Amino acid sequence: MIDEKNYSLLAHNTFGIPAACDRFLEYESIAEAQAIAHFLRASTAPLLLLGAGSNLLLKGDFHGIVVHSAIKGIDVAPIDNDVIVRCGSGEIFDDVVDFCVTHGYHGVENLSLIPGEVGASAVQNIGAYGCEVKDVIESVEAVNLATGEVETIAGSDCGYSYRNSKFKHEWKNHYLITHVSYRLSKTFQPHLDYGNIRAALAENHILTPSAKELRQSIIAIREKKLPNPKVLGNAGSFFMNPLVEAHTFERLITRYPAMPFYKVGEALYKIPAGWLIEQCGWKGKHLGRAGVYEKQALVLVNLGGAKGTDIIALSDAIIHDVEKKFGISIHPEVNIV
């Protein structure tokens, strides 16, 4: 177990914000997570449960305790035509996707190259290209901070919705996640009807992709439009795509016939936030050292030396302009601390 004071978080946030915390605790086993839970019950300090920091914006130093999971391991158990893939919460999520594709376990191909760790996947309900991780989460194992006991929570009980879960709200700072189990299929059923997946495959003369080819295509798409955080600090998609009701959608599509959209259920429509931001003229623009990525307006970047407050100022300006032009609100996807 790692226990360090006055710990730099520069390597723990992909925005590259130079910040520190008062104390950093890291657990590599369930027993260590239980020991940390025991310690935290006697502490009154603010608490931040941190994954890889790929969905985090730090305003500045965190004056409290940061806890991180370093539990590794991937175990597989067959069940009918499916498999349960149980992963340590400290595993890199894309490494898990690669493992599953390589071994013929299907259902996460569209989630390729999403940054972050396994534990955060269960908190954030990560998603991309028409798929969400909630659709494959079988269960989440976690240490209850109030009791120190290990609980196994069914995925269906986690309150998942678009980029949301109970772990972000009523269960926030209540659990230290140790493992996440995904239920995947041995039968490959590709999901291709979202965004430009089919077009990207067609460029390589692929009509019926294998799981590996679909993963490679998703990776290529993401690498074209998302900057490498090691080169240009960012947290991927900064804003959630807004969901609007039918009457708002009809107003917008009448005024903007070329507006892209995706129907969600019977009465909601998802509008790409990147398109809204681009229509407001922000793509490739900047405020000080905080900018909007030139290839994807959904991504805010640290141009070098930006503070968390600089990114927030840019975000606020964008939110204001989208509201003014379209009459709808967009909200950050990243966790701002």
UniProtKB/TrEMBL annotation:
Record pathway: Cell wall biogenesis; peptidoglycan biosynthesis
Gene Ontology terms, MF aspect: FAD binding; UDP-N-acetylmuramate dehydrogenase activity
Reaction(s) catalysed (UniProt annotation): UDP-N-acetyl-alpha-D-muramate + NADP(+) = UDP-N-acetyl-3-O-(1-carboxyvinyl)-alpha-D-glucosamine + NADPH + H(+)
Enzyme active site: R163, S237 (proton donor), E333
Annotated EC: 1.3.1.98
Keyword Protease listed: no
FAD-binding PCMH-type domain sequence ranges: 17-187
Gene Ontology CC annotation, any one: cytosol
Subcellular location, record wording: Cytoplasm
Signal peptide: none
Listed Pfam families: FAD_binding_4, MurB_C
Biological processes, Gene Ontology terms: cell division; cell wall organization; peptidoglycan biosynthetic process; regulation of cell shape
Keywords associated with the record: Cell cycle, Cell division, Cell shape, Cell wall biogenesis/degradation, Cytoplasm, FAD, Flavoprotein, NADP, Oxidoreductase, Peptidoglycan synthesis
Main location: cytoplasm
Top-level taxon of the source organism: Bacteria
Role played: Cell wall formation.
Family to which the UniProt record says this protein belongs: Belongs to the MurB family.
Protein name per Swiss-Prot or TrEMBL: UDP-N-acetylenolpyruvoylglucosamine reductase
UniProt source species: Segatella oulorum F0390
